[in-house]
Amino acid sequence: MHSTSDPAARHYKVRSSGSTTVTALVLVITLFVLVVGCRYMHGANTPSPAVIPDSTTILWTGAVTSTTARIVAGTDYNPADVRLHIDTLSSFRSPDTIRGMPAERGRMQDDALAGIVHFDLSDLQPGTRYHYRLLARGDVLPERVGTFTTFDDGPQSFRVILGGCTETGSRHPVFDSIRVASPDLFLHLGDMHYSDIARPELERYRQAYATVHASPEQSRLFRSVPLAYMWDDHDYGPNNSSGAAEVQDIAQRAYRGLVPHYALPAGTTGTVQQAFSVGRVHFILSDLRSARTRNAAPDNASKTMMGVQQKKWFKDELLRARDAAVIIWVSSVPWIANDLQENDRWSGFTTERAELARYIDSVGVASKLVIASGDAHMVALDDGTNNVYGPGDGIRTPVVQAAALDRRGSAKGGPYTIGPYPNRFSLRGANDGQYVRMDIEDDAGDEVCVTWTGRRWAYDEQRMTDLFRWEQCFSAEEASPR
């Protein structure tokens, strides 16, 4: 909240002549524009100067299944001296003690990853809430605590928050809103930070993620809700990055070392695509940056967002997912896009988009598929009407756009049957915050129903508001948990 000292809230009584009144009015308006403009240009939601990111701010959970999870922590200690207590009780009455492992195994540890510790948890109980805390050299680190909940076995209902595009180290209230919504998973669609790292220096990536975690609002979220995350351009490298970026190898190492990801089929090097299942819903996260052809290349069969190896994996993954009821494919950039001048999204890769659409149709998964994207700073939804790519009238799968968590609004791609709703700039001097809530209802019957709700943290009203709500049910007669 802003006090009445805010220039926008002041009332001026001018006692002099008309010209003086006009001058005073101009000064007031100028002052207001300068104050709001500076907040806008420099980020109204940047970390508090009192919060200094360091190596110990990183702590988050990912790769959660019904029986496993991964925790990544930043410390000032040798990983051999760090342990994790994990218990179903917050009092840690009888915790299990887990030994940490260094971020990179089998190679010389880079100084930029020193103190980064991985804890790979197994033999967990399905549908169980766990508490964890860090220890170093036998001493409990009281500020390094968190919690997560495993998924159930079999068909289940659950909640996912979809969102992306965040000022580096943002302290926006939207993150507390996400946490209070009690999602089972936070699916981050890219641009977690806007560091736009152009030089291959691993320390810059560690500092970028440490700045994210230095935000108390984001830290509280990441220490209480499991994460699945795929980068886009600004958190991979410079704006509109491709596989030709100088940072490619370092960015991939940083992701592997600093992010609690699911298993990476590419192994210890290369692209960072991944897939996992929750009940009868299968998630595919494609890496559309680190093997991408340059955007300016001719749009022909050799131009690719995925690269040859990842595209083969993607097609195989769709084939394996035919027994799922719903497939959520994370494409970090808009799929519905027809402006050929905008070549950073699928409108610049129409040959490959047509190839993928034909394949989706040929293996019979179009009726199961939903495409989720960030990049555009808006929320929107298409019920399939405008997804006209592929044989005949197109594959007609729904498309969901979920951003920006706090960045200035923009509209890309389309058209959409609902929206777009670009993120607004508030007269309070800060952007609103947006995301999409995805509620999956699965009672083990013959269908799985999914409801998407576009949500906005309205700064002017200081509360969450709903922008749209849309539901689709998918046949599950032949589906089985994966």
From TrEMBL:
Residues 173-386 form the PhoD-like phosphatase metallophosphatase domain. Keywords: Membrane, Transmembrane, Transmembrane helix. This is PhoD-like phosphatase metallophosphatase domain-containing protein. It comes from the Bacteria. The keyword Cytoplasm does not apply. The chain crosses the membrane at residues 21-42. It holds the Pfam family PhoD. InterPro entries: Metallo-depent_PP-like, PhoD-like_MPP, PhoD-like_sf.
